């Protein structure tokens, strides 16, 4: 079955590109991956696609908010350090829209982030912090327990 993917063309599939999957469309878990680093974003997206998740990619927080507002997604994985709007600010905006959606923070400096910002992680309801680079088995082990916990509503 061919399934459409959404992306920005920078580090994700272009609008209209498809990926092969044996899953029925309604059973797909949709994950929004936000990373301004092309290689990192593409790596995360490809690992998740391999595990039959439907991926929507954004290279910045503003693109992510647009996708989130227009497309029902089950989960968000966002980079911390991004230009114009940080991962912290993006998560705060996402939490205004949904307190329930699982959100994962992706960073190259998790030790520093967790030690110095543990209260902020808890306050924003971040479900987990993922350290770059992450191996596929570790990514899936962290994501899979949250995959079906949130069912998005259709955008207005």
List the helices and strands and how they pair.
Layout: E1 2-4, E2 18-20, E3 30-34, H1 38-50, E4 54-58, H2 61-70, E5 75-79, H3 87-97, E6 103-107, H4 110-123, E7 128-131, H5 136-143
Parallel strand pairs: 3-4, 3-5, 5-6, 6-7
Antiparallel strand pairs: 1-2
Please give a handful of descriptors for the protein shown.
alpha/beta, 156 residues, two-stranded antiparallel ribbon, five-stranded parallel β-sheet, globular, 7 strands, 5 helices, 19% strand, Rossmann fold, disordered N terminus
Low-confidence stretches: 1-25
Report the CATH C-level class. Answer: Alpha Beta
Find the CATH superfamily: Response regulator
The side-by-side strand order for the widest beta sheet comes to 4-3-5-6-7
Q: In which range does the helix fraction lie?
A: 25-40%
Mean pLDDT: 81
The number of distinct helices, counting runs of at least 4 residues, comes to: 5
The largest sheet, given as strand count, sense and whether it forms a barrel, is: 5 strands, parallel
How far is the first residue's CA from the last residue's CA?
Answer: 27 Å
Number of domains: 1
Per CATH, what is the topology? Rossmann fold
Helix and strand content put the structural class at alpha/beta
H-E order? EEEHEHEHEHEH
Number of strands: 7
Radius of gyration: 14 Å
Shape: globular
CATH architecture: 3-Layer(aba) Sandwich
Approximately how much beta-strand content do the residues carry?
15-25%
């Amino acid at each position: 079955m061919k399934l459409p993917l959404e992306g920005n063309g920078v580090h994700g599939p272009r609008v209209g590109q498809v990926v092969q999957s044996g899953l029925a469309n309604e059973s797909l878990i949709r994950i929004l991956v936000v990373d301004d680093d092309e290689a990192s974003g593409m790596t995360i997206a490809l690992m998740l696609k391999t595990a039959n998740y439907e991926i929507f990619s954004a290279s910045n927080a503003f693109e992510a908010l647009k996708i989130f507002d227009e497309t029902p997604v089950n989960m968000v994985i966002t980079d911390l350090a991004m230009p114009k709007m940080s991962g912290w600010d993006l998560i705060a905006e996402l939490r205004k829209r949904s307190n329930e959606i699982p959100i994962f923070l992706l960073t190259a400096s998790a030790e520093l982030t967790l030690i110095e910002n543990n209260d902020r992680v808890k306050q924003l309801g971040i479900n987990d912090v993922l350290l770059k680079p992450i191996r596929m088995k570790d990514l899936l082990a962290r994501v899979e327990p949250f995959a079906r916990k949130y069912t998005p509503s259709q955008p207005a």
